[in-house]
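Handoff note, outgoing to incoming analyst
You'll be picking up this chain. Sequence as last confirmed:
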Amino acid sequence: MFAPAHSIARTPLVAVYGTLKRGLRNHRWLEGADFLGSDRLTSATLYDLGPFPGAKPEPSRGVEVEVFRIDANLLTELDRLEDCRPRQPHAGLYRRAIHPTTFGPAWLYLYNPDVAGCVAIRQGGWRP
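Most recent structure output, in case you need it:
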């Protein structure tokens, strides 16, 4: 299960599932971050939003993520990229929550808007 971002101490890990993954268009934002490996999360479901995916905190059969070790400065930059507002979690496009991974607890960006009509990805990963 996951926990809201405000209730757990910061973690140096982030789990990415979309355009931040290696080989995709926004991966450059993670340049210099330590790639720890891939994992499958059953605590989130992805939704295909067209040019990018969004995750919702719903059970799945295992969605693919890549886990990176980052620092606080990079987390702030990723928040800007994802329109994540930690002090107003539901005001931006995404909010962050801690999800368990093989490598330890990691931040996962969760999509705030409604996903009605979007294709759910409950197993595997998003493909551009």
